[in-house]
Amino acid sequence: MDQKTYQKFAKAHAPRSPLLRDCFHAFWIGGSICLLGQILQNVYRNFCGLGKEDAGLLTSVTLILLSVILTALGVFDRIAKVAGAGTLVPITGFANAVVSPAIDSHAEGLVLGVGAKIFTVAGPVLLYATLAGTVWGVLYWIVTLL
Predict the structure, then answer these.
(1) Less CB within 10 Å around the terminal CB: N or C of the chain?
(2) Which of 123, 105, 121 has its CA nearest to residue 113?
(3) At what angle do helices 90-104 and 122-145 cross, to 10 degrees?
(4) The dihedral of CA 106, 110, 114, 117: what is its sign?
C-alpha cells in the first residue's frame, strides 16, 4: 500500500473530533481558570490589603501551586482530557508541563530521574522563549539606535 492510499484509508477510518463541543469545553474551563485567577487577585487586593503587583505575584504563585497539587493527584490530566487547550492558560499549563515529567521519573532518583527529566517538556519552551526574547531585544536595540 503506498502512502497516498494509506492516508485515504486512515482518514476514512479515523474518528471525527466533535469540534464545537471541544471548543466549548476549552472555552469554559480555560475561562474558569482565568476567573479563579481574577477572584484570587481581588481577594488578595481587597481583603489582604496587597498592592496590584504583590496581589498579581501571589495569584500566580497560588495558581502554580494548585496546578502542581492537581497534577500530583492526577486530577489535572483528567481536566485536560475534557478541556484540551483550555488548561493551557499559560501559568497552569506550564506548571503541569514541569511537574508531570518530574512525577513520572521520580522512581529513577532525584538526580538522574527528577533532575534530568524535569524540563523535558518545558525545556524547549524556555530555550526558544529566551532565544526569541534575546533576538527581539537585540533587534529593538538596533532599531532604537537608528
Answers:
(1) C
(2) 105
(3) 140
(4) negative
φ, ψ of residue 140 to 5 degrees: the values are: -65, -45
Q: Find cell 495569584 and name the residue.
A: 59
82/78 Cα distance (integer angstroms): 7
Q: How many residues in the chain?
A: 146
Q: Which three cell numbers stand for residue 89?
A: 492558560
Number of C-beta neighbours around residue 116 at 10 A: 14
CB 56 within 8 A of CB 41: yes
- Digit-coded pLDDT (tens) for 1-35: 788 888 888 888 888 888 899 999 999 999 999 99
What letter does residue 73 receive in the DSSP assignment? Answer: T
pTM as predicted? 0.72
